[in-house]
Amino acid sequence: MVAITFIEFNGTRHEVDAPEGSTAMEAAVRNGVPGIPAECGGACACATCHVYVGPEWTDVVGEPSEMEEGMLDFATDVRPNSRLSCQIQISDKLNGLVLQIPEFQG
Ligand code: FES
Predict the structure, then answer these.
(1) How far is the CA of 72 from the centre of ligand 1 (A)?
(2) What is the pTM of this model?
């Protein structure tokens, strides 16, 4: 299991365990973390799983794919550290990952 911390816009922290091979979005949804409706179910087709990667994690998480970047255009308040959490594959190198949830999705 890989530990991930989601931080809501209001500062509330949710520390969850995610199995390797799943995605950060799935970890949020399975654990009832609010603010990630993930309307398309992880198909990179809705941008409602938008998160900000913690500054110390951007290199480890890496850049979005071209398809993900195209979908991020539909997200609100996109920043250089924006990612779609359904496209973040969980592996042990992400143990301790911190993701912030934007104020609004979509
Ligand atoms: Fe729809 Fe991630 S869940 S793009």
Answers:
(1) 10
(2) 0.96
- Is pLDDT of 106 > 90? no
List the residue whose alpha carbon is closest to atom 4 of ligand 1: 44
Question: What integer pLDDT is reported at residue 78 of this predicted model?
Answer: 97
By the 8 A CB rule, do 85 and 33 touch?
Answer: no
Could you identify the residue written with the tokens 């970047």?
69
Residue 106 lies in a domain: no
31 assigned to some structural domain: yes
- Residue 66 falls inside a structural domain: yes
Q: Are 82 and 75 in contact (CB under 8 A)?
A: yes
Which structural domain, as residue segments, surrounds residue 91? 2-100
Write down the residue that tokens 């299991």 correspond to.
1
Distance 47 CA to ligand 1 centre (A): 5
Domain count, the chain: 1
What pLDDT is stored for residue 34 in this prediction?
A: 97
Q: Which atom of ligand 1 is nearest to the CA of 44?
A: 4
Q: Is residue 105 part of a domain?
A: no
| CATH classification at residue 72 | 3.10.20.30
With H, G, I as helix, E, B as strand and everything else as coil, classify residue 19: coil
